[in-house]
Amino acid sequence: MTFHKTHACAGCNQCLGTSNLRNSQNYDVANAPAALAPGLRPRILNISVNATANGSLDSPRFHFAGASSGHLYNLALKIRLVAVFLLKVYIPISAKLLGYAPTRWLGWGENLPAGVAMQWSAWCSQPGYVLNALGSDVLLDYFDQIRKPILWLTATDDPIATPENVDDMLRLYQNASVTRHRIDPRAYGLKRIAHIDFFRTRNATLWPMVTEWLSQ
User: Among positive and negative, which fits the CA dihedral 190, 166, 127, 13?
Assistant: First the structure.
């Protein structure tokens, strides 16, 4: 059973920051399996920034695809300048003028409440990502208690989850047992994996490496 979480809600302007949203997501994901099937121990699959939302989840195994920090200056050069403009100029201005950041038309998920958008911009502006918010915006975290196995997959054509940004995110999981692989799509006859395409049906040839690992 897979519970997929996004980094933003569907335009809910009541969310003031990702710390609030993060806590509410963790509660739902942690409790939904028990409510649906008592005794079930879920395997947690995460894509991208959702890897920051596991601090209170009980799972025997985790799988991350394209998970990394979003530090702007570790991004691949082909998107770095655009990302700097969007996160340092577009988001602050639109959040101030409109009360939210209109990111949906850019293909970046749903529109972001102003607090969420500004927090995301701040996290991406320096190394550490969510580490910089622990103890302030994020009051409770359990990352140091996660000692479960993690399969951490990224792609060579991912401009966000670069090796440097993966290293940055791994600082959250210093006590976990991490198996890390970087996948070249050409080795599997695929055109593109990039940042969030691992679970698209056109890339289904990759899925057995996850299902086999989760079944162990």
Answer: positive
